[in-house]
Amino acid sequence: MRFTKMHGTGNDYVFVDCFREQVANPAKVARAISDRHFGIGSDGLILICSSKKADAKMRIFNADGSEAEMCGNGIRCLAKYVYERRLAKPRGPIVMGNGARYNASLKIETGAGVLTVGLSVRGKTVQNVCVNMGEPIFRPKEIPVKLPGERIIERPIDVLKQRLPVTCISMGNPHAVFFCDEVEGVELERLGPAIENHELFPRRTNVHFVAVKNRGEFKMRTWERGSGITLACGTGACACCVACALTGRCGRSCTAHLPGGKLEINWSTEDNCVYMTGAAVEIFEGVWL
Prior knowledge:
- The protein is an alpha+beta fold.
- The protein has a domain at 140-277: Roll (Diaminopimelate Epimerase, Chain A, domain 1), CATH 3.10.310.
- The chain contains four helices and 20 strands.
- The chain has helices spanning 26-34, 72-84, 188-196, 234-246; strands at 2-8, 11-17, 44-49, 56-62, 67-68, 94-95, 101-102, 104-110, 113-122, 125-132, 152-159, 162-170, 174-179, 206-214, 217-224, 228-230, 253-258, 261-267, 274-278, 281-287.
- The strands form two sheets. It has an 18-stranded mixed sheet that branches. Strands 6-7 form a two-stranded antiparallel ribbon.
- Helix 1 (26-34) links the parallel strand 2 and strand 3.
- The radius of gyration is 18 Å and the shape is globular.
C-alpha cells in the first residue's frame, strides 16, 4: 500500500490515495501505522476517496482506530494532494469569507458535510489553503454534551476533583474549551483523557486549553479525541476562536498559536461561517509492507 505522509501545523497524518489503493480495514490500519515506534508514526490515517457530490471525499481515522467527522489540518493537506496530483479538475478562483482571493478552489466531502477550500497556488504547488469550516454549532444535543440550556459557555463541570468552566462548541465534531493563564502549566496528560471520556460527552470530545495574549491572538494546547496530545487541531483552533469571541476575550479574527505553528481564523459576520487558513506540507512517500 502506497502512502504519503503530510502535516498541517504539525498535525501529521498518513494519507492513502483510494483512487488507486484499497484499504479493507481502515480502523486496524490506522492503529498500526500511527504507532510512532512500530509503524509510520502519525496522529491518524486519512483516506482520499472519490465522491459523487464533491471533487473528493475525506475519511479520517484517529490513532486509536475511531473514525472522526472532520479534521481541519487534514483537509488542507488533502486539498493540496488532490490539486497537485490532479485527482479532480480544480474549480476557478474564489474569494473566501476572510476577504482573500485564491486562484483555485475545490469541494471536499467530509463527515461534517461538503466544505469549500480556496488554494493559493504558485506554479503547480499549493502554498496554503483556506477552508470554509461552516457555522459553529452551540446546541448541546447537536455537539453533543449532556448539559441543559441553549449554549454552554463557561459552565462549571467537575473533572478529577476540580471544577473547571467549559465552553462547548461543535465544528462538525465536538470541542470542550477551557481558559487558563498559561497553557504550558496545564497537566494535559492527566486532564485530557479525563475530559475526553467524561460522562457529559456521549461521543467523547476534543479538549483545548487556551491562554489569550491580546484581542487578536491566543495560545492553545490540545488533547485530541482518539489521538491524545497533538501539535495542532484545526477544528479546535476554530472552536477556540469562537469561544474567545463569545466570552469577549478576543474579536472574531484571531491568530491561533499552537505547538506546531499558527493558524489564521476568521469567524465571518456575513455568513456566520468560520474560515481557517494555514499551510499544508508533504513530508515523504513510501510503501507500507
